[in-house]
Amino acid sequence: MPVDFNRIPSNLRVPLFWAEFDATQAGYLATASPACLLGHKDTAAPAVDDKPVLVSGVDQAAALFGAGSMLTAMVDAYRANDPTGELWCVPVADPVGSAKATGTVTFAGTPTATGTVAVYVGDRRYTVTITPTDTPTTMGAALAAAIAADPWAQVGAVATAGAVALTAHTHGEVGNSLFLGLNLRGVRGGEYTPAGVTVTLAPFAAGAGVPDVTAALAALADAEYDYVGIGWSDSGTLDAVRDAFNEVAGRWAWSVQLYGHAFAAQAGDLQDLVDYGTTRNDPHTTLMGYPAGSPSPAWRVAAALTAEAAVGLRADPARPLQTLPLVGVVIAPRGERFTVGDRQTCLYHGIATLSASVDDSVHIERSITTYQTNTWGQADPSWLDVQTPATLQYVVRALRNAILTKYPRHKLANDGTRFGAGQAIVTPKILKAELVAQYASLMELGLVENMDAFKQFLIVERDTVDPNRVNVLLPPDLVNQLRIFAMLVQFRLQYSPQALASAAA
Q1: Segment 440-451, tens digit of pLDDT
Q2: pTM to 2 decimals?
Q3: Residue ranges matching CATH 2.60.40 in the chain
């Protein structure tokens, strides 16, 4: 590459030794790939709505957003999976005229034995030890006290006689999805209702209102947030996310080049998830579906997924996320989980899937986008897996970094032009060679393959109308992922002598 000596005047006469530095050959792609979470804060919390704030840990989140808020719960789930990555949060205003979801736990009867009842609100567990001297009133008061003593509780509790009224801290209909369960670990886990007592649960309901995340997404402005966790999955929210990340005027547009990917989650039965997944078609959003009856709220699942995706894709954007653990996520009890066939159906309708191990730990099974069909409604797997946009994002950033670093103030000439040494001039052929060299580096990183085809189909030419412009057709062949290992086991009870003789021949 020609060296640019223009900063040292050619007519300099003052002796003797002068030096300048050129970093254009020393640079390399370096980005923090920050993550961002969008969620509700408590109404009285000091953080400003729709303003990004850097958050280091859950204690800081509690001070900013309220200890029992959706956003603090998301930070807690995120940090359990990504302790060190750069994390920003954007509080979103409560829906106008919204209502909080409510549920009820009612104790009745006279205990004839001692036992420990465990009430689950979301994935938080509250135990009440019951003895024969207890009444429904004392049982209810004990549960309300246990919840009040938990600084991270996502509900408020008020006991009246044997009934405990629970009110979600989070505004809106999203609170209706908050899990309310009893004795999930069973007798082996020391959780059971003693004889003579009944515990009745009224699930969370009556939450109303959906957020408007448009201002929060706009607040991301021109900063790079590669992994964005969304606390809601309603159609209005995901439509706003789609518009914010699109290729026309959003974060993936040619004129913006911020990129990034959004992650959300939703619990439901198979039919509901499939019906909803069919209505989504966004290459820059992943919607993780998991069975109703799972204690972990969707906003915590979304945050955990965002964190694991951030950790995995920062290290290698082309490597699959399957088997990565979702630390802190609690799946539905055995017998209520999706079968392999159920999860296969989800994947064909734009819903990403998770799975549980024998110890009930939860892992990413396949993290796909919601993109399913092209403009004409035809099935199109081109943007199926998150590795595709993640790898393309890295490739484009690497090439942009190389061009802007090495050729920031160059002149443009036709191929074959004779110019003197030291001239800051570039030609289409030089740029093509640079792109091939960068492609080789990307191959070393395991992100692309098939160099010969790349060189054959790569086009770099000077524009015929604008003499200051170079047009490039870049045809990268992205490396793929090992998703399926298919094997036919064609066994024998014994090889025949004829078969052995034939094989030897």
Answers
A1: 999 999 999 999
A2: 0.94
A3: 100-205
